[in-house]
Amino acid sequence: MGTILMGGLELGLILAVMAIGMFLSFKILNIPDLTVDSSFTLGCAVSAIGAANGHPVLGFLLSVLAGMAAGCVTGFLQTKLKIQPILAGILTMTGLYSVNLWVMGDKPNIPLFGKATIFTPLQGKLPVLFEKLPVIALVLIAVAVLIRLFLKTQIGMSLRATGDNEDMVRASSINSDGMKILGLALSNGIVALSGALMAQYQSFSDISAGIGMMVIGLASIIVGDAFVGKGSVGRGMLAAILGAVIYRFILTFALQLRMPLSGLKLLSALLVVLAISIAAARDALAKRRMRNA
Amino acid sequence: MLKLQDIRLTFHRGTVNERRALDCVNLHLSPGDFATVIGSNGAGKSTMLNVIAGSYEADSGKILLDGEDITLRKEYKRANKIGRLFQDPLKGTAPNMTIEENLGLAYLRGKKRGMGSGLKKTDEAFFKKMLACLGLGLEDRLKTQVKLLSGGQRQALTLLMATIVTPKLLLLDEHTAALDPKTALQIMRITDGIVRENQITTLMITHNIKDALSYGNKTVVMGQGRVVLILEGEERAGMTVERLMQLYSANTQDAFSDKMILYSRHT
Ligand SMILES: Nc1ncnc2c1ncn2[C@@H]1O[C@H](COP(=O)(O)OP(=O)(O)OP(=O)(O)O)[C@@H](O)[C@H]1O
Ligand SMILES: [Mg+2]
């Protein structure tokens, strides 16, 4: 039981990294970015190739750069070529499928069993149950703290304003196109980082690893909102992290209750719908209460 | 300070919706000029401001600001020197950010934005002082999200944001039209105070002919995509609302819009 719960927590925290990335595009920039599924796979692929060739840390770091490049492409399509955000994301996602295959050497999956990963240094030094948690927690905390600090800088504030009111941003001499590209690059860099963690955590990279990840990230953000409530930036990030962990635990329990593995994606989609309806119902209730008061 | 030379702009050229919005506009403002702009609906007033700010690109002609040719410059780069207010109070501020954060962003106008802190502790006192000048009690609400402010409060804040770094040019497009008469008067007074104190070169569109004659030192009259009349000096001082309306009809074969007449009668 302990292993199962720990596994749920670890996976939840890895997804939380992705949720922070998606928080940047969906919440801060207010852009629905469909690049996510493919940049997650890209992160998996780059980090797996690194680990397979004996450079787990290098692969890990390069995955961030690869993800950022993917985000730049989507950003470029949106701002310079004026392609609708959704279509821009779909185009990058489609193109990246080939790129991901090339990165993985035209193989649909790369097993890393027996290879050194970023988790190897702690192996044998801690009780087996806690071997992997510190690395995951460290990455998550580092990403969360860095992004929180970044959003307080001048550029970070300009980024937030771009998602809030583009007219005002341009009238204040801020390059809104540049901000969007930067935001999408950061977002996808973090998503790829999450993919990189996942590949080395599972000692396995698969060309379809990222399928449905966007919905999972969305579920995390929305589930988190339902629990933590909307508010400041810090609170929103906390909500995304918590949402990812809660989401993952729900899946863990569903699997314990003998839900077939094939039902995973359906459950993710249903969770998003459920979380959205709960939020809508709550708003409606609050309004009714106000009217009656 | 500002020079428009033969600016032309046609929307949807070559389609059934073709619409000539600016038809050879020429305008010259000297440093410190506060010009009001009037004209009937569709005369091209907003389009002219949009062309100056860079939201639209002129088909032909030249725009000079502060001695520089800015005709082809991007909107956000022009904003280094141009402050701007829209009719819609929602357009000028970031609603989910605080008053302080909005001011912080505006305070960086024209400067390079980097990894420095977006809100410096040392600026807080300055922001409070500037907000206090507006006389709306906003100085005690630095941490309030802007979406919680009224339209008038937002417009006053936007005005402060547009001028907190003194711009070379201030563009106001009916910035009090969406407010109730009392608030509109208040915002007009604040505007006049800020513009005069900092001697900001200003273009202000209004539908209130009285305001157009009483504020500023020039009145630009537009009709059918052209500047048809510029009033200044004694001619302007002696002008009445009625005479201006007669002049306008004579110059443009176009009557003032009902909206303008309504405004002038009721205020
Ligand atoms: N984005 C646009 N696309 C097409 N036509 C436009 C656009 N903007 C303005 N026009 C047209 O250009 C002409 C001038 O419009 P403009 O908004 O400048 O008028 P205005 O003088 O500001 O009028 P109002 O007093 O109603 O604000 C109008 O005929 C308008 O229909
Ligand atoms: Mg207009």
Description:
- The complex is a heterodimer of chains A (293) and B (267).
- Chain A is built from 11 helices and 2 strands, in the order ααααβααααβααα.
- The longest helix of chain A has 29 residues, at 264-292.
- Chain A has helices at 2-28, 36-52, 56-79, 85-103, 133-150, 154-164, 166-171, 176-202, 213-228, 233-256, 264-292, and strands at residues 109-111, 204-206.
- In chain A, α6 crosses α8 (176-202).
- Chain A is mostly helical and 293 residues long.
- Chain A has a two-stranded antiparallel sheet with strand order 1-2.
- In chain A, 74% of the residues lie in helices and 2% in strands.
- Chain A has one domain (2-212).
- With 267 residues, chain B is of the alpha/beta class.
- Chain B has a single domain (2-110, 121-254), classed as Rossmann fold (3-Layer(aba) Sandwich).
- Chain B has helices at residues 45-53, 75-78, 99-107, 121-134, 151-163, 181-198, 209-214, 233-237, 241-252, 258-266; strands at residues 2-11, 19-29, 34-39, 60-65, 68-69, 82-85, 169-173, 201-205, 218-223, 226-232.
- In chain B, the strands form 2 sheets. In chain B, strands 6-7-8-3-9-10 form a 6-stranded mixed sheet, sandwiched between helices.
- Classes of the chains: A mainly alpha (293), B alpha/beta (267).
- At the A-B interface, α6 and α7 of A face α2 and α3 of B.
- The structure holds adenosine-5'-triphosphate and magnesium ion.
Offer a concise description of the structure:
The complex is a heterodimer of chains A (293) and B (267). Chain A has 293 residues and is mostly helical. Chain A contains 11 helices and 2 strands.
What tags apply to this protein structure?
heterodimer, A: 293 residues, mainly alpha, two-stranded antiparallel ribbon, 2% strand, globular, B: 267 residues, alpha/beta, Rossmann fold, 6-stranded mixed β-sheet, 4-stranded antiparallel β-sheet, 10 helices, 10 strands, 37% helix, binds adenosine-5'-triphosphate, binds magnesium ion
